[in-house]
Design goal:
Strand content: under 5%
Shape: elongated
Largest sheet: none
Number of helices: 4
Order of helices and strands: HHHH
Structural class: mainly alpha
Helix content: 55-70%
Number of domains: 2
Length: 138
């Protein structure tokens, strides 16, 4: 009992989902699962506060940005490099080149889709490589 006869009352535990998440985090830490990123996930909240909605929005923005790069900027760069290395395109310039590429994309040509999706695929490959490196390091 503290001085002057006052009793310290502990704060009330959090209510609702937050209480369950805090309990799970404490449980994970008590069983030795204290590595960063390994705390239990419950519902749509993770241990660092990112919600599923936030992660999905970020990944969608990343995909759309890299799709824009693959669909607009890469073909332009390929056209310019091809023009310098091989000479004029057999069609009538960039408009014809882009028209041919977009027609192949609409028809489902696998090579054209690989070209357009390659920035996103390369980014995912870099992510997986970094994850494998982190997991392999002691």
């Amino acid at each position: 009992m503290p001085a002057h006869g006052r009793v310290d009352i502990p704060p009330a535990p959090p209510r609702g989902r937050r209480r369950i998440i805090l309990f799970e985090l404490d449980l994970c830490q008590s069983v030795g699962n204290d590595r960063p990123g390994t705390a239990a996930r419950f519902g749509n909240v993770t241990n660092n506060g990112n919600s599923f909605k936030h992660i999905a929005r970020r990944e969608t923005a990343l995909f759309l940005g890299l799709l824009f790069i693959g669909f607009v900027l890469m073909p332009f760069g390929i056209y310019l490099v091809g023009q310098e290395v091989f000479g004029d395109y057999s069609g009538h310039g960039y408009r014809d080149f882009f028209g041919t590429l977009s027609a192949k994309i609409r028809n489902g040509d696998a090579v054209a889709w690989f070209l357009v999706l390659s920035p996103y695929l390369v980014w995912q490959l870099v992510r997986l490589t970094a994850l494998a490196y982190r997991r392999a390091s002691p």
